[in-house]
Amino acid sequence: MERVAASLQGKIMSAAQAARLIRTGMTLGMSGFTIVGYPKAVPQALAESGHARDLTLCIGASVGDELDGALVRAGLVARRYSYQSNGDMRDAINRGTVGYNDMHVSQFPLFVNQGVGPKIDVAVVECAAVTGEGLIPTAAVGCMDAVVRAADRVIVEVNETLPPAFAGMHDLFEIGLPPHARPLNITAPDSRIGTPYLPCPPEKLAAIVLTDREDQPAKFKAVTPISKQVGDNVVRFLRGEVAAGRLPETLGPIQSGVGSVGNAVLQSLSAGGFRGLTMYTEVMQDAALRLIEQGVFDRVSASAVSLEAETRRHFYAHIDEFRDKIVLRPQEISNHPEVIRRLGVIALNTPIEADIYGNVNSTHIMGSQIMNGIGGSGDFTRNARVSIFATESTARGGRISCIVPMVSHVDHTEHDVQVVVTEQGVADLRWKTPRERAELLIENCAHPDYRPLLRRYFARAQRVAPGQHTPHDLDAAFSWHRRYLETGSMKE
After folding, report:
1. How many structural domains comprise the chain?
2. Residue 1: what pLDDT?
3. The domain containing residue 370 runs over which residues?
4. CA quadruple 376, 381, 383, 384: dihedral positive or negative?
5. 179 preceded by a cis bond (ω within 30 of 0)
6. What's the CATH number where 175 sits?
7. pTM of the prediction?
8. Dihedral of CA 173/176/178/183: which sign?
9. pLDDT at 262 (0 to 100)
10. Does residue 287 sit in the same domain as residue 205?
11. Same domain, yes or no, for 206 and 230?
12. Catalytic residue among 174, 282, 353, 392
């Protein structure tokens, strides 16, 4: 497959020339999802020249340092949407020097399509190839389709390090806008409803830049004995649901959040004897790729494949074997609430903290500092057949309890959180009253070092609260967070 169609080769130029098409005050739509498939050469050329400032970046998820890091360090970014994980970008957001609006993964492209928010002037996207039919995405689709459709002009980086065999792995489909949105006829994770390329009118293509810069490899913490126990407890819960007749042996499509706990849970599925499973998720990571080879997963639908360096090399070397088992979709579809609900997805996500009534904070440290963003956890949690939050019971060497009296920020309310799992055990919160939930979370999920403190808080809350449905001691509800900020530990 030729990288650039013969009819479009006249648009090839250097990254520096393409960057000059971007001017101060513009809104840029960028490809990229979980540090995969993001443009690198043009953003770096833009950062080096520094000629365009006060930029608004619209990106569906996290991208590499060559984009977020380079542009924010150059002082060129005024606003950033909608999910990020770069340390320098995060610092700028928490200093208040970059405006940031966190959004659900499924809603971001919808807002772009509807014209809610700033008009996208230029889309800068990475592709595996540009054909006469359209753009061939990389290992990530994300919001690439939305920003290409919305932008006045499109700059394409064609990455020549990517396998040409990416062609055929994607399923691009334009939903359209309500009330005339097209139904999604996805009846299984491997259903295909669109085209393997993204249509883009040739007259919209302003520049094509040939590059050979690889994505930054994903970096996940190694699975530890504690995170493995978390994963084993999740599998124990799922086995119980199968035995009770509430789930089939094949469970239903799995969604797994990104990170070491997510990898640990997926590894435990194999050890738990599950086979012939499927995934309908936003990000496929290392453990899932291995589980395809082991026969645990038959089919996977995702918006991105985010892998560590060695696993990525293996994926590229055997992409012909994986292409028929993996479908890559736009994030508007991978995270679409209706599809999630109808397929009966089992959602596995990781919280920063959960409180004794089951409210979950996924985004903020100590109530005011953004970590990364809500990502797709809300899309899946609210609409899943079973929504599970799995985490280690403590953080920072035991100085922070992940089960607290009241979360310092709420992303997922108690109404959407069905099951909480730590290495200590499982709290099935379904059909439980608030006070029953508190007892389960304290006794089954909290670390033994913090259980006495939680019991004491809960007992006092029942004595002093004006109401007994969800009793809280408002004077002490955030005392653990205050104590950590003052002393460096939540322990007394």
Report:
1. 2
2. 72
3. 225-487
4. positive
5. yes
6. 3.40.1080.10
7. 0.96
8. negative
9. 84
10. no
11. no
12. 282
Question: Is residue 188 located within the same domain as residue 230?
Answer: no
Whether the upstream peptide bond of residue 303 has omega within 30° of 0, thus cis, is: no
Widest pairwise Cα distance in the chain: 77
Tokens of 96: 């208040």
pLDDT computed for residue 260 by the predictor: 79
Q: What is the residue type of 328?
A: L
The rounded average pLDDT for each run of 10 residues, N- to C-terminus, in the chain (492 residues) is 93 98 98 97 98 98 97 98 96 98 96 94 98 96 98 98 94 96 96 97 97 90 90 96 96 90 86 92 94 95 96 95 95 98 97 98 97 96 97 97 98 98 98 98 98 98 97 98 97 94
Is 492 part of a structural domain of the chain? no
Helices 225-243 and 260-271: crossing angle in degrees, nearest 10, is: 50
Last residue of a domain, one of 185, 211, 237: 211
Q: Contact, 147 vs 61, CB < 8 A?
A: no
* Angle CA 317–319–324, to nearest 5: 160
| pLDDT tens-place string over residues 123-163 | 999 999 999 999 999 999 999 999 999 999 999 999 999 99
Whether 293 is a known active-site residue: answer no
Instruction: Tell me if 67 is assigned to some domain.
Output: yes
Q: Which residues are bridge partners to 81 per DSSP?
A: 58
Question: So what's the pLDDT on residue 209?
Answer: 98
Ramachandran angles phi, psi of 255, nearest 5°: -115, 135
Both tokens of residue 139?
């290992």
State both tokens at 112.
């772009």
Specify if 294 maps to a domain.
Answer: yes
